[in-house]
Amino acid sequence: MEVRETHDPDPEPLYSSVPHEWLGLAVQDLLSGDTGTLMDVRVEPNQFGGRRDVAYIRQANGLEFSVPAAQMRRQP
Prior knowledge:
The chain is mostly beta strands. It is 0% helix and 43% strand.
């Protein structure tokens, strides 16, 4: 699924959830190697005034972390 990061206005308001085909599946953060279940993907502002999709991932211990959606991969 394509990850969007743009300066153009999106139809979704900031901080709203967007559909993602991996919701509920095991994913991995490519930089840290941390794994968990993809719980949500939301539209959030980036540091340049644009927008990006941010993935919220819940680890097996119940803690959640977020990463740019482009920075994750699906676990086999």
